[in-house]
Specification:
Elements: H1 3-24, H2 30-35, H3 42-53, H4 56-69, H5 74-90, H6 92-98, H7 103-110, H8 114-146, H9 151-167, H10 170-201, H11 206-209, H12 221-231, H13 244-259, H14 262-265, H15 274-310, H16 329-337, E1 340-342, H17 359-367, E2 375-377, H18 382-389, H19 394-432, H20 438-461, H21 467-491, H22 497-519, H23 548-564, H24 571-580
Antiparallel strand pairs: 1-2
Helix pairs in contact: 1-9, 1-10, 1-19, 3-10, 3-15, 4-15, 4-19, 4-21, 5-13, 5-15, 6-15, 7-8, 8-9, 8-19, 8-20, 8-21, 8-22, 9-19, 9-20, 10-15, 10-19, 12-15, 13-21, 13-23, 15-18, 18-19, 19-20, 21-22, 21-23, 22-23
Length: 586
Amino acid sequence: MELKTLTYLVVGASFALYIGIAIWSRAHSTGDFYIAGKTVSPIANGMATAADWMSAASFISMAGLIAFLGYDGSVYLMGWTGGYVLLALFLAPYLRKFGKFTVPEFIAERYYSRTARIVAVICLIFVSFTYVAGQMRGVGIVFSRFLEVDLTVGLLVGMGVVFVYAVLGGMKGITYTQVAQYCVLIFAYTVPAIFIAIQITGNPLPQMAFGAEVGNTGVSLLDKLDDIVTALGFNQYTSGTKSTIDVFCITLALMVGTAGLPHVIVRFFTVPKVRDARSSAGYALLFIAILYTTAPAVGAMARYNLVNTVQPGEIGSTDGNIAYAERPEWFETWERTGLLKFEDRNGDGRVQYYNDGNPAYASTAASYGWQGNELTVDNDIMVLANPEIADLPNWVVALVAAGGIAAALSTAAGLLLVISAAISHDIIKGIVVPEISEKNELLAGRIAAAFAILIAGYLGFDPPGWVAQVVAFAFGLAAASLFPVILLGIFFKRINKEGAIAGMLSGLLFTYGYIEYFKGLFLKWAGAPWGENVTANWLFGISPEGIGVVGMMLSFLVAFAVSYSTAPPPERIQHMVENIRVPRAQ
């Protein structure tokens, strides 16, 4: 069966499964809609949490980053994994014990302030819409390639599917849909990795193949990759180029940003007991580890296959690169998406792929008659294209398409529901119309979710960067705004409403302004004032992906300074904070 037909069948079957689950688990109350009625088992919640957390950035983009950045890409791997551990140990059980529907509701009661609730909603919306822009880009990439439809059509289909199970099923429908999506995405990620590991090293375990030798050459995969990429002027794969401070800040920003993500935190409100929140956190970490220990091998093997396909002959020789007219089928199909581009700079009809930004390699390239790199490969296509490059069976390629869509849609649905809850529960019920009936609140939540999906789709047409980069921005915003006040709200009873509000606003505005200035998050005037040499103007040498750490420190500093210069919280609030931390047999 041809790939297009098979992909339609596999993806269509997965969509039917998701919609069927949404209909079966339709929300009938606000409790069902916001927190699945607190009836989800720890194992199911762990699986749903893993799917919610492992977005298109994890499935599609992270291994692509590792493929092209090598050692530097490890910051995403370390940051996201470490962040989940931080969330599971220090925040999730306490927030579940507090027992509210949303993060802004916790902030409102802990800081005894409607204003704090509104500011928390603003922070949440900034974080969630930034995050969802990356997910919708992932949906567009998968649809545009595998279903061979226009990006607009692909996004509309994805929006329609999310609309059905998010608006109809609410958190209850999303939870059980995410269980199915986890099964799809993890199977889709590991199966091709096993096939390719066997092809390259003969070892079926990708985690072991990562350090195994290539064929019978006696050379390990990483050593071979180092030789190949340095021969083409690229940086050594196993060594980094980022400064130590930037590596530290990006890793820490991703860690604390994970712990401040509202769509992940709310998952721990769906289990019956506090002890179940801890158990589901452990299960989720186990389920997440399957993908995250596989990703480094997937990235390395993808880069190895790409270079060997483009340079099938002697690396760096004048005739070692392929003739454009003889390019493989996968090359042509990805060209049609616009995510892989070839420009014949020297008119020889061959694909020159090398690092033309390396001055030391310029003279070597010139001696071959090369006049600049001719191949541009988008980071985000590597996981999706890798099975095709490796010439795996069509059913494997179709499975990867279904997995990529599942990863993007699972997180998008969780984010959209958080936005919906923030508007209907925190703004409409919490502030504007406190006496609203449960039926009308449920209707308001569904309408808010529908509008959020429309905005998310719009952002997917013109996102501010590749998937993992956009997600890193969202994590930075969460690290600088929501994480400090949640952590302080649990462990520091002296922090008051004035400190919390000032801390959230200062962290959010500083971090957003920095990212906007250098990258153009939504306003699209990225880096204009700095010209070409933008890195020289980074504050302390910290990139926009890592600036959330500075924003977080600013938020902590402002919160403490303002709190200790104003009146302490009421006694009842201080007792409530103490009570949250008291362990009970639950």
